[in-house]
Amino acid sequence: MTTSKTTAPADGLTHFDATGQAHMVDVGDKQETHRIAVASGQIRMKPETLAIILAGSAKKGDVLGIARIAAIMGAKRTSDLVPLCHPLALTRVAVDFETNEATSTVHCRAQVETFGKTGVEMEALTAVQIGLLTVYDMCKAVDRGMVMGEIRVMEKHGGKSGDWSVTS
Amino acid sequence: MTTSKTTAPADGLTHFDATGQAHMVDVGDKQETHRIAVASGQIRMKPETLAIILAGSAKKGDVLGIARIAAIMGAKRTSDLVPLCHPLALTRVAVDFETNEATSTVHCRAQVETFGKTGVEMEALTAVQIGLLTVYDMCKAVDRGMVMGEIRVMEKHGGKSGDWSVTS
Amino acid sequence: MTTSKTTAPADGLTHFDATGQAHMVDVGDKQETHRIAVASGQIRMKPETLAIILAGSAKKGDVLGIARIAAIMGAKRTSDLVPLCHPLALTRVAVDFETNEATSTVHCRAQVETFGKTGVEMEALTAVQIGLLTVYDMCKAVDRGMVMGEIRVMEKHGGKSGDWSVTS
Amino acid sequence: MTTSKTTAPADGLTHFDATGQAHMVDVGDKQETHRIAVASGQIRMKPETLAIILAGSAKKGDVLGIARIAAIMGAKRTSDLVPLCHPLALTRVAVDFETNEATSTVHCRAQVETFGKTGVEMEALTAVQIGLLTVYDMCKAVDRGMVMGEIRVMEKHGGKSGDWSVTS
Amino acid sequence: MTTSKTTAPADGLTHFDATGQAHMVDVGDKQETHRIAVASGQIRMKPETLAIILAGSAKKGDVLGIARIAAIMGAKRTSDLVPLCHPLALTRVAVDFETNEATSTVHCRAQVETFGKTGVEMEALTAVQIGLLTVYDMCKAVDRGMVMGEIRVMEKHGGKSGDWSVTS
Amino acid sequence: MTTSKTTAPADGLTHFDATGQAHMVDVGDKQETHRIAVASGQIRMKPETLAIILAGSAKKGDVLGIARIAAIMGAKRTSDLVPLCHPLALTRVAVDFETNEATSTVHCRAQVETFGKTGVEMEALTAVQIGLLTVYDMCKAVDRGMVMGEIRVMEKHGGKSGDWSVTS
Q1: SUPFAM superfamilies, alphabetically (chains A, B, C, D, E, F) (predicted)?
Q2: Domain-by-domain residue ranges, chain A?
Q3: Mean pLDDT per segment of 10 residues, for chain E of length 168 residues?
Q4: What is the dotted CATH code of the domain comprising F42-159?
């Protein structure tokens, strides 16, 4: 075969080969281990918008219930959206929303798991992004100025690099 | 026909009908106008990560070039991802990245346009989200703690509600 | 141009040309009119399964709310799924569920609208199918023997053939 | 990690956690076994419509051949369509159609197999649904009143719950 | 608005702006006209492989019928696959195959039409590519060395640039 | 179970069963081995078009960088596009472009790998096709007459049939 094995580039960005070309990195030799990633983020809104969401969750017009479904479905589309992500058979996706009236924010937290050769941080982040986007979409008729932020990986487990969690 | 026309719910969330059920809202009677939306957001990282991105943009390993493509393609997938979004024939998508070494951030700005019955704020936000996700993916091997934020609509034009821009 | 215009085949199946080859039929000369289609269907289950659904709709575990979202998203994927369907910019999708304890069934009804050159019967039927599939998926842990049926177009409006409704 | 393991809810609907929130259920600890599911369904039409289909299958205008392809491709899209379905690497999809002139129906039967942690009932049902939808689409120009029904799982094999088949 | 209008770059590649960044070019001001594109291509194989295809088309095992469906469906996915393509509501897709025993080739020809602001050359080319890929897939068990080639646009009509056809 | 095992048809086309019906062939009993496929192809253009590409690759307007991303993403969509392809969890995708000024061509070469039950020839070919399509799209404003060709599998490794490479 004429293509030599992937060589990690000098600067540590594994999505590029030694000549600087993007590729979907070779994970064929990595171990299949149980992998978990947790990501989170938030959306900040007017207090009256949050009040409408809270009213809806209690009875009808369930903004967060719909955002949860969108987030779960979004996690499954990650490798379609992020160019160099490997397709993965996810074994679990759980998405939680919490509301904070003091800061007038909705917090989203996604936990994704698989048993495979690569981690699921991107899937967890995608779930959070699509979940927050859907909250925005559902509420934009009353509040165009909502801001999404603090979207990050919180912890990961499994794989060669082992456990990691944000230090805050 | 037995289904009565959509009635806006009391709380202003147009994605729910008068009985609180989610629907893709009727836009059949809306005008086809030129619609523009601009969204933006950022990703904060370690200075050394930003340095690698800046080096790559100048020659090989073009993180931001790849993120731009992902953002443009993401805008086209919006109605697949956000449950109640209408499918739209976009007429323009432009995505810019700017880097700020003082704050160690990459800023993404997406402008989306169409000539149609609904606005393109969600498409612009999706472009920004997928663009930032791709930057995260490309750099996560060297910096897992990157944080995405300040993701919001900056301005919109066209449609019944006319022009709007963030006041900051 | 060497390809002659589509000629309707002798047997009336417009998805085949005069030589019997499948094609996506030419609708370029059709009028853009307001088009509406309503489809419906049902899923039959054990009374105790329906009781669980009814309990969930009232508070948590909202089977029908999730099925409604899946149905709406499914309508948007119709032209990806049905080979010779034209892609269409839907202007409205509304999905209702009704439960009937006497017959132990959940009924699904979808109304889809567009302003375009072809009808939206397939989109309405796809919404019903995916809505019922999702009810099945959510309840299969307690009732594998559920049966879906009576899935049909109920009425359509707009286009050259005008109004039509099922006579029953 | 802060998220506790999935606890089966009291009512047996495993797609909801103990607090009633939807999730893609954790299958990480399930065995990878050979799993098979068979689903079936039918579409009822006017005798003259069935006659056209039967004529086409014999020579040109092959309605059932196209519906078979759509059904197979539909099975592969299941986890994109049904919100809480796990993505699965299918190892076999076979779809058969039979026609019954006495009842003026076309019967569709799909058998799907995988070697994995969850069953393939949803994939088999999706194949049947999309197969029947495509028959409807191909014939609707001559028969709008066709009705789809008797769509159900016929048998399943593999997994913790072992073999199951419909008792009728 | 802060983003200046797209300026054509000096080298004529309209998919890049004046600063060399890729974008989905602004077509908002272009006329909606009837647009047609025809593309073609071929796949070369062993004579005995072509003999099998020819036998199948006559009765069972219809390679070209399946490839035609894949080609039509592929045309609808063009804007998902080609990064800077605009999504378009196609109004017609027709795909023909011809076989040539003298050269042991199968020729594929796709005609795509829309009424819109951009042309459909990419959709016609995608249809041809996916059609030929499917022929390869169906026959690869007996002939791995098949070669696809001569894939090109043959003619286009409509739009500002008017009619064009290959001169050969 | 009522469906008998797949029997290879007399003519060797494994995508059809013994009765000539298309199916996604059963690979459940095949070994999971490391599988590699390499495909290649080219696009021929005017020398001045190639000159623009070469200028862009050196600094801005990176046609080949964008085509590489499209090719990698295309490889991941193969089972959505080719009707009877099995979905596969790819472990590596690498795409290289080479330019030849003497023949005024751009050559694309894709190497795809997985650890699974079926080969990845189709994924490698799809990557090449989408890569070349994207080059066409990026350059069509200056050169409509470009021709794609010589698209073929170059070598494969792994699986029951073992190693194979083109003899030329």
Answers
A1: Molybdenum cofactor biosynthesis protein C, MoaC (SSF55040)
A2: 33-159
A3: 47 83 89 91 89 70 89 97 94 93 93 93 96 94 92 92 83
A4: 3.30.70.640
